[in-house]
Amino acid sequence: MDNQTTQKSNHNTQKTIEQCQKVLGGIISNADMARHSTSVVVKYAKNSQLADLLAGQIEKYDDYVAKAKQLAKEHGIKIEMPSGISKFFVEKSIKMRFAFGTCDSKIAEMMIKGTAMGIIDLGKLLSRANLISEDCTQLAKDLLTFEEDKINILKYYL
User: Fold this and answer.
1) Does domain 15-157 bear CATH number 1.20.120.550?
2) CB neighbours of residue 105 within 10 Å
3) What is the four-CA torsion angle of 118, 121, 127, 131, rounded to 10 degrees?
4) What is the pLDDT of residues 64-105, one digit of tens each?
5) Does 63 score more than 70 pLDDT?
6) pTM, full prediction
7) CA 92, 53, 23: angle at the middle one, nearest 5?
8) Is the CA virtual torsion 92, 40, 33, 108 positive or negative?
């Protein structure tokens, strides 16, 4: 291998690591914020079926965070966790929206809107990551599929 080929290979490797870092960071940010938001919203669910559904989603989001952290560790990538400030504002926003009462449709609508934002953000990251490893790509796609399915299930409560 000549020097130019080696430099190009090293550049691609570095780019792959950077892109994996962005995507894994996006997965963690998306799943962690969704988990936190859902854990706040579930307290307002009076319908036991909806509450159980949301509780199951919290567990699933925990799994995605854990898997993304594990992949980051395997790839030697350092990921920063989302700040507590953004979680604080999300929690206050949810409490304000539900201050005058809640119903299944209001909860479902809020969850669908938040999930759609997460899908858009993660989809953008994934579409720009052309050198990403297959395991990082697959985890992001799995999370996107989970969130799309979540929206379809929540539509029942509108």
Assistant:
1) no
2) 11
3) -100
4) 999 999 999 998 999 887 778 888 888 888 888 888 888 999
5) yes
6) 0.87
7) 65
8) negative
